[in-house]
């Protein structure tokens, strides 16, 4: 298995605002510059899916596999021979909020999907986190 984590601590960002932005999947395109759209099928609950179309790439179906309301969620994208997980969480540290994203990929073809998809996702985590922080501060 391969994984990459990006984490940043910030002040002046409310965890409720971060959670609301994360769970409003249909609006992700308003603060994530690397996607054309995301569309949630149903509620933001385990077992439900959303479609996501990255700019310059094909649309994919992603399943929500874990939710700890108000704190973290994990999504799963299935590829032939591999599974890619995205874990999105925040942790309170006194007056700071740590926002952490981890992407991991496993399976016998994970080496291939790492090169095709996962490394690009990991490369964009810092920019995505900054956009999330900016949007949370202005919400």
Explain what you see.
This protein is of the alpha+beta class and 139 residues long. 27% of the residues lie in helices and 45% in strands. It is built from three helices and seven strands; from the N terminus they run βαββββββαα. It has helices at 15-23, 110-123, 125-138; strands at 2-11, 35-41, 49-54, 60-68, 72-79, 82-93, 96-106. It has a seven-stranded antiparallel β-sheet with strand order 1-7-6-5-4-3-2. A hairpin with a 2-residue loop joins strand 6 (82-93) and strand 7. The longest helix has 14 residues, at 110-123.
**Helical percentage:** 25-40%
Strand order of the largest sheet: 1-7-6-5-4-3-2
CATH topology: Alpha-D-Glucose-1,6-Bisphosphate, Chain A, domain 4
The description of the largest β-sheet is: 7 strands, antiparallel
Give the overall shape, derived from the CA principal axes.
globular
Q: What is the averaged pLDDT score?
A: 95
Instruction: Quickly count the domains.
Output: 1
| CATH C-level name | Alpha Beta
How many DSSP helices? Answer: 3
Quote the beta fraction.
Answer: over 45%
Question: Topology of this protein?
Answer:
Elements: E1 2-11, H1 15-23, E2 35-41, E3 49-54, E4 60-68, E5 72-79, E6 82-93, E7 96-106, H2 110-123, H3 125-138
Antiparallel strand pairs: 1-7, 2-3, 3-4, 4-5, 5-6, 6-7
